Amino acid sequence: MRWLIAPDSFKGSLSAPEAADALAAAVLRCDPSAVIDILPVADGGEGTAEVLLSLAGAHAFSTDVRNQQGAVVQARWGLLADGTRAVCDAASCLGLHLVPAAQRDPAQLSSAGLGDLLLAMADAVPSTVYVGLGGSGTNDCGYGMAAALGYRFFDATDAQLSEHPDQECDVPCLLSRVARIETPQQPHALQSARIVGLCDVRSPLLGPSGSTATFGPQKGIAQERFGDFEDAFAHFSRIVRRDVRDIDPSIQGGGAAGGLGFALAAFLDAELVRGIEAVLDAADFDRRCESADVVLCGEGRLDEQTAYGKSGVGVAARANRAEKPLFVFAGSVRGPRNSIAEMLGAREVVRITPEEQDEEDALENARENLETAAFRTLSAFLEERFP
Predict the structure, then answer these.
(1) What mean pLDDT is reported for the chain?
(2) Which CATH superfamily does the domain covering 1-41+284-327+348-353+379-387 fall into?
């Protein structure tokens, strides 16, 4: 049988390639003659660039850029096989993991490093640049990125504002003081490239489902400062719409990565798309799925909200369209598995974590759990299919 193995990462435990390897090991245990096509996937979250760079013919590079605190870090990016498409993750220079939890104060953090990275990528003259937007630790509505790209910001007295937040004027202060924006005086290659923001969420910029309200807590924003950020984002977006480009703050994905979705659309005329769809297209998923007899996918957690942008639903929709049996594996499943399986059109949704394991043990033993659960499930499937 031919098997297409297309999992996302299991956050905190397995990367997408590691999960794919575990599933492949399970398949070979129960079907030694299996023909396996391994295709790790991502939905625009952290690790999306690595998944795309794992495709045949891709070339990876590293560039020194600033992280959100201004320290120099090496950010990976790359060119896909045709040489016309470049890809990076915002998290490679702005990721939550780059700042210790005790130092996470988005009021003092800048997205300038992403501007540095994009300019470096532009030197390779790709015609399309994909930007994975998941996993960032900033919440500055792209102010820092835009400043790094050459945009200049002025207050009501026509004094130029700082490119970076500081103790005297933090992110909400800077955004609230912007009265006028000037576009870059020197053109750069990005202005002629197609920029595509790969979103793993559909959140708008503002409101109860927006950037600050939804993702502020995990980034370290204190509850009492939510209003400061929200008001500052609302003001800044009005000035951006007047002086740069009229992008509706309610655009889906505008709230991704602390407002970087909105900023990419406004300052670089980017398209915001569902990350999983772009990844599957780049990987030629439909052709590979057509050749398969069974499709396996998975991710760290499944629930009844999975349909709202996660990788599983993207893989599932295409597997269903090709009328292929689909099995979905997850570290945890919240909600009735039967209803989630029905929603995804899956033959079965499998929780890989044994009931007796606590979270710490589950993360530590994720590979073993995944391979064991997959072997048990797929053995039963094959016995049923070939009694």
Answers:
(1) 93
(2) Glycerate kinase; domain 1 (3.40.50.10350)
In degrees and rounded to multiples of 5, residue 323 shows phi and psi of 60, 45
Instruction: Give 66's strand partners.
Output: 72
Q: Which of 141, 124, 34, 51 is nearest to 89 (CA)?
A: 51
| pTM to 2 decimal places | 0.90
Q: Which CATH architecture is the domain 58-276 placed in?
A: Alpha-Beta Complex (3.90)
Residue with tokens 């709202």: 308
- Which two structure tokens, joined as six digits, stand for 110? 């800048």
Q: What is the DSSP string of 85-124?
A: EEEEETHHHHBGGGS-GGG--GGG---HHHHHHHHHHHTT
d(CA 5, CA 44): 19
Both structure tokens of 91: 């998290």
Q: How far is CA 64 from the centre of its chain?
A: 21
H/E element holding 30?
Answer: helix 16-30
- pLDDT > 70 in the chain, percent: 98
Domain range summary for the chain, segments of one domain joined by + = 1-41+284-327+348-353+379-387, 58-276
